[in-house]
Amino acid sequence: MSTSMSSSMPIHIQWEELFDRQISNCYPLSIDQAKQLPGWGKLEQYAKDTWGDGGWNIVTNPEDFRDRPANACIEVARVPLQWSQQPQCSKSTAEIQGKSTGTTTKVAFDVEQGTEAKTSLSVTRSSSITTSVSFNVGFSLPGGLDAGVDTSFSTTLTNEQSKTTESTSGKINKQHYEFDNEDGKQCKMTVETSDCAATAIGRIPVVAKGFVWFNYEDKRAPKADPNGGEHYKYSANIEQVLSEAERTSWIEVQGPVNTVTKANYETNCSKAGTGKKAAPKKKVGEKEKEGGKKPSSGVSAPPKKGEPKGKDSKKPAKTSPKSAAGKPAPAKPGVKAPAGKTPSGKRPAVKPKPAKK
Fold this sequence. Notes:
Layout: H1 2-25, E1 26-28, H2 31-34, H3 40-51, E2 56-59, E3 70-73, E4 79-80, E5 82-99, E6 105-125, E7 134-140, E8 152-158, E9 164-181, E10 185-220, E11 231-237, H4 238-241, E12 248-271
Parallel strand pairs: 4-7
Antiparallel strand pairs: 1-3, 2-10, 3-10, 5-10, 6-9, 6-12, 7-8, 10-11, 10-12
């Protein structure tokens, strides 16, 4: 027993929710409203051809036949809107900057991102059936808006001339971003905002379905079966007799649509004060601050006093070959030791020759 009770509960709730949703978009169709349908004349002719004419009383939703009602409903999931004026869009950008300090830092940005659409629809023509009642209606916007715009929304619409309904779909949220950044660098974030405006129009079908009752003053059998059973009351199925166009009345709406989209952010990091100054010119003969080198001016410097011209005083003289033991070879008698080294192996100091007068 517990199993059957637990399994039946969700089924009951689902049907109850479905019933509530249908009721919100379906309303009882009165006989006066039924007579406003485009195909009403065809429905009357059907009754005459099937059961005959004569005295009758035509009604809908009789108390003694609740299982055969007549309703007017909006059953489409989405009503497609069209542009009466093409969207006009403009874009702008804004920069958010932040500077980091310290050796290991992060740069944080709080920016707005997302899309929001505001729609205001007014009833320019009401339906002849279910007047002054409200429906839950879904709409879809056509193309032409920037990418990212939510093209569908739902709102409550009242079937009454000049009645206006406003709706906001989508959402713009604040987003937090963090980036690693080096010390001394300046980061910025660029956010692009797109604003679009357009005028939309649409037609919402209100469709009749169910039964219309023809109550005759006398009992009669159907014409197709004259020997059949005789009755006072006969019902005609609206969906079987009339096409959808013949049993549909329209609500026409029009109004502005405005969208705001904030997206397409990007970041750049560059050193703070990126402008570079030109280096000052140096004078000829001035030493560099780094390295201590003399600048090259293209002219040789004059020799020092006592230094021969055209020769490098620092160039070492040739040395004598070494012996097998690694010691310098002894000088031969009558021959001077070669310049550059003494017999002890040490290099004597080179004295500059006096300059010739």
